[in-house]
Specification:
With 560 residues, the protein is of the alpha/beta class. It has 14 helices and 22 strands.
Length: 560
């Protein structure tokens, strides 16, 4: 970067020189010296503070022909103004300036543009007017946040110049570029991770589970996922890849979220039946209030199971807003906050198909839930988790009575019914929701609840679970012992432009199952190499990454 005027390139901090004071030399010499020392120290401190200030805008003016590599080390810059120079090319290292939102390269001598500018995905304004540019790299289609794109005064095709000047022309041009952008290489196949329980051969009952939020078609919009080509957002394209992932996993049980009613009936259920599965489904509560045509597009939760290993005994629908109404006495925010969210859950009571290795009936309770998404409603998510555990407790009690389930050794059947609980809980591993589900207890005056009106419900719930005991009088609890599959080896299950974290889970009865295998996370190396902005994309059909785990269940441990 050649510069003729240093002051115009880097911010200049004006420093006020220390004032000089006149003192009688003989009488006040000592005081004068100390005073001057303090002034010098204060001035040095002030200078250091000014030097530490992060300036975020930089303008370079003058007959500049080349840019110094040092410029691309200023990774904190949000605005870079290079107009009115003699630049003929821009180094690809400009993509190091990831924070740039405004880039002005107008009035230069540019002929070619580096595709790497497309990796500066924070750009809102890109000014390229009055150069000699003849083509725009397709990689610029990744600039999905771009609002101002100035191209006038370049020998570009007339249709490009006309499009960018039309109303909504910038997003149309960006979409065209993205749809024609070269595809990155596929991610490597996810590896199977063995746990310490894995055995090459086992005589026990082995089954596998997938938990997958498939991203409902109506949520897969250009506004939400502007970094994904429009053709790769289309349901016809995504569903093919979704089903391929399901088929390749060879799971015995699929717990899916965000499945549209019509897609369950016309795609998932018929396709899976071809491969020996059956399934159940429940839509979100809003479906009850809609006309038949509109109901087809309401999403919900689905459970599919391999009919060679399981048969359905009974299905239970869980509607969180209905549970909120039923538990609203003395808890106003059950109506004000929880009832307004129409999330649902689904429970399948399955019987293991006899395989000749045991003459006793064996059962499995599979639950699937999709909880509210908004981080501002952490109290609602927590209450939904409590409501689901309360409902699950009621279901198990009923099954124990009706099906004569339990254990002859006197063990509490609530604590020994084998369970799998999958879902998109929209909660990170350190959240109160996961803490409650895994620990089985939580303080009744939890921080996320105490500022809301849930007192009546919490009081009744604690009394019910306490059942006369004083042990848990200040705690909300549930009777199940859950562990989460592969917590350490799966850092994220949801990956978008502005969020990356683990919010999907497979929980299992820790007293009943041994996890033996799990599918590893999406390769972080691939994400970096492909410069992936997020999911969905050309290779990954949802914004969620499916979880898959294998379990071993002892043959001789039964529910009869």
């Amino acid at each position: 970067m050649q510069m003729t005027q240093q002051a115009s390139v880097f911010p200049h901090f004006q420093m006020t020189p220390p004032q000089t004071l006149s003192f009688p030399i003989a009488e006040n010499y000592k005081f004068h010296q100390e005073d001057q020392k303090k002034k010098r120290e204060n001035h040095s401190t002030e200078l250091e503070m000014k030097q530490k200030i992060k300036w975020t805008e930089l303008e370079i003016k003058g007959p500049i022909r080349y840019l110094s590599p040092d410029l691309f080390k200023l990774t904190h810059l949000t605005s870079l103004f290079l107009s009115g120079n003699y630049l003929t090319h821009i180094p690809p290292e400009i993509s190091n300036l990831k924070c740039l939102q405004h880039l002005d390269l107008s009035d230069n001598k540019l002929i070619l543009l580096p595709p790497d500018i497309g990796d500066i995905i924070q750009l809102r304004e890109l000014l390229l007017s009055n150069n000699n540019i003849r083509a725009i790299p397709y990689e610029f289609g990744k600039l999905f946040l771009l609002q101002v794109f100035s191209l006038s005064g370049n020998p570009l095709p007339q249709e490009v110049l006309q499009t960018v000047n039309d109303t909504n022309g910038v997003p149309q041009l960006i979409m065209y570029l993205l749809d024609n952008c070269p595809c990155t290489h596929k991610p490597p196949e996810r590896e199977w991770v063995r746990t310490q329980n894995y055995k090459d051969h086992s005589d026990e009952f082995i089954f596998s589970v997938m938990c997958y939020n498939v991203l409902c078609d109506k949520y897969a919009t250009r506004q939400a996922y502007g970094y994904c080509p429009t053709w790769a957002l289309k349901w016809e394209y995504r569903r093919t890849n979704i089903f391929r992932e399901m088929k390749e996993s060879r799971a015995d049980i699929f717990c899916l979220q965000e499945v549209e009613t019509d897609q369950f009936n016309t795609f998932f259920l018929p396709k899976l039946r071809e491969f020996g599965y059956d399934g159940i489904f429940t839509p979100k509560s809003r479906a009850k209030t809609m006309q038949e045509f509109d109901r087809k597009f309401v999403d919900g939760c689905a459970i599919f199971f391999n009919t060679s290993k399981f048969s359905l005994v009974e299905k239970f629908n869980v509607e969180f807003n209905q549970l909120a109404i039923a538990n609203s006495e003395g808890a106003d925010d059950m109506l004000n906050r929880v009832m307004l969210k129409d999330n649902v859950g689904l429970v399948a009571f399955l019987k293991l198909v006899p395989d000749g290795r045991s003459d006793k009936e064996r059962h499995l309770l599979v639950s699937n839930a999709h909880m509210h998404w908004d981080p501002e409603y952490s109290d609602v998510k927590l209450i939904q988790a409590v409501l689901f555990m309360n409902e699950l407790t009621s279901i198990v009690k009923r099954l124990v009575d009706e099906q004569n389930l339990g254990f002859s050794n006197g063990t509490d059947p609530l604590k020994r019914i084998p369970m799998i609980f999958c879902g998109d809980f929209n909660s990170l591993p350190d959240s109160s929701v996961i803490e409650f589900l895994l620990s089985g207890r939580m303080r009744a005056d939890h921080e996320e609840l105490k500022n809301f009106g849930y007192e009546g419900f919490i009081s009744r719930y604690c009394s019910q679970m306490r059942n006369g005991s004083s042990e848990y009088q200040h705690e909300i609890s549930h009777p199940f012992f859950f562990k989460s599959v592969d917590e350490a080896n799966f850092p994220f299950t949801n990956y978008t432009y502005n969020f990356k974290g683990k919010i999907d889970y497979i929980l299992y009865s820790s007293r009943f199952f041994l996890p033996t295998l799990s599918l590893a996370a999406l390769s972080e190396d691939w994400i970096k190499e492909s410069k992936s902005i997020g999911c969905p994309n050309v290779h990954i059909p949802s914004d969620h990454i499916p979880l898959v785990a294998h379990f071993e269940m002892p043959i001789n441990l039964t529910t009869n």
